[in-house]
Amino acid sequence: MKAPPFRYARPRTLDAALKLLADGGNGARLLAGGQSLVPALNMRLLEPTLLIDINGVDELSGISESGNGIRVGALTRQTVLGASDVVMRRAPLLTAAVPFIAHEAIRNRGTFGGSLVQADPAAELPACVVALDAQLEIAGPRGRRRVAARDFFKGVYETALARDEILVAAEIPAQRGTTLFLELARRQGDYAIAGLAGWAALQRGRIAEARLVFFGTDIRAVEAKAASAALVTSVEAALVALDHDLKPVADFNASAAMKRHLAGALLRRACAAVMARAA
Amino acid sequence: MSETVTIRLTVNGTAVERDVQPRLNLVDFLRDELGLTGTHWSCEHGACGACTVRVDGDIVRGCLVFAVQLDGASIETIEGLTESGALAGLQAAFHARNAVQCGFCTAGMLLTADTLLRRDPNPRRETIRAALSANYCRCTGYHAIVDAVADAARERAKRA
């Protein structure tokens, strides 16, 4: 189908976009890359009265070094994120994840921040920013605030962002350890049935510290705290601990039990890959 | 109905000015406003790739961009890229390999394949398959299309 009629505004500044969003009430929506919003419009799942196209708000775009880490503007295209040298040096988990997001034609439009605020439980970037301890910078009528990525994702398509707020950027500390990223999908580019994003720090050939975040299994990206801690002891201990961390939810791809099984398989594969790299 | 907005853009090298409703997507703009019917639409939610066109040099899904967003942009479609000869080698290989049955997906396939070959002139077969996974074909079973892209890559390498 085709999108329903809407009014269209193209602000040039963040302040102008915030004002349009505040004045537009419940009928106003932001249009960034549009790769999730426009399908929803075409399927008439949403009928906003006003679309606020923020693609002309330059201050929302770009990647820069920030202390030891990086700052990624919310409007940065996924293609640009995946090709960035500074991202590869400071947060290689993001570089590893980008090729798994849909397809090139979609990544050319789709944005980093759009994927975060969409909060699809099977999306890659929410899991990555949780694994990287990112701080999300949010602008609204009451000023700016920061939310830790681990507190941002609330549920299926639900985040800590209020209706009148805009995600501006993520501040991402330099990644520690070696990258863990694995995803199982039916076909290249499909949403994950189950995925694992994280890192592991090695000492004397053993995993000394790790961060494991699973996506596609639960209602949101889940930090597997118990399994991450247990991984220092053994992979087997981590596999058992996963039961404390995950509450898998069935979807059209797989049952909850299958998702739990796949999460364990990914954990086992990721650890084997890390140890093979270390050897 | 909503008000129209005036947009000025370049399509296949030609300057175009039109008044459009904000809800008009790029594929419908090309087909209905400009008569460029080589770009097809099918799923209208970004899954099938039939509407693939180039915007400012990058391939995009034409069904997931509104024409009103493209004021000042440069668009290239299958018509322009055919006329310039940019796709001639791929088109010859598709013909030779019988990589076209109904032809509905072909324009999108050619644009996706060309993007791959410009980045990776000597792609492995798995790389070709991964790139083409962005585009659905319901006739060929893909093998002939993968063969054609591999042939076109070899031809381009010979001429380079």
What's the shape of chain B? globular
Global morphology of chain A: globular
Unreliable stretches of chain B, pLDDT < 50, 5 or more residues?
none
Bin the helical content of chain B.
25-40%
Describe the model.
The complex is a heterodimer of chains A (279) and B (160). Chain A has helices at 14-24, 37-42, 78-83, 85-90, 92-97, 104-107, 112-118, 124-131, 149-152, 225-230, 235-245, 256-278, and strands spanning 7-9, 28-31, 50-53, 63-66, 69-73, 135-140, 143-148, 153-155, 158-159, 166-172, 178-184, 194-203, 206-215, 222-223. Chain A is an alpha+beta fold. In chain A, the strands form four sheets. In chain A, strands 4-5-10-6-7 form a five-stranded antiparallel sheet. A four-stranded antiparallel sheet of chain A has the order 11-12-13-14, with helices on both faces. In chain A, helix 11 packs antiparallel against helix 12 (256-278). The relative contact order of chain A is 0.11. Chain B has a five-stranded mixed sheet. The longest helix of chain B is centred in the C-terminal third of the chain and has 17 residues, at 143-159. The N and C termini of chain B lie far apart (53 Å).
List keywords for this structure.
heterodimer; A: 279 residues; alpha+beta; five-stranded antiparallel β-sheet; four-stranded antiparallel β-sheet; globular; B: 160 residues; five-stranded mixed β-sheet; 6 helices; 5 strands; 16% strand
Question: Summarize this, please?
Answer:
Chain A is α+β, with helices and mostly antiparallel strands and 279 residues long. Chain A has twelve helices and 14 strands.
Q: What secondary-structure arrangement, pairings included, does this model have?
A:
The complex is a heterodimer of chains A (279) and B (160).
Chain A: E1 7-9, H1 14-24, E2 28-31, H2 37-42, E3 50-53, E4 63-66, E5 69-73, H3 78-83, H4 85-90, H5 92-97, H6 104-107, H7 112-118, H8 124-131, E6 135-140, E7 143-148, H9 149-152, E8 153-155, E9 158-159, E10 166-172, E11 178-184, E12 194-203, E13 206-215, E14 222-223, H10 225-230, H11 235-245, H12 256-278
Parallel strand pairs in A: 1-3, 2-3
Antiparallel strand pairs in A: 4-5, 5-10, 6-7, 6-10, 8-9, 11-12, 12-13, 13-14
Chain B: E1 5-11, E2 14-20, H1 26-33, E3 52-55, E4 58-61, E5 74-76, H2 78-83, H3 88-96, H4 106-119, H5 125-132, H6 143-159
Parallel strand pairs in B: 1-5
Antiparallel strand pairs in B: 1-2, 3-4, 3-5
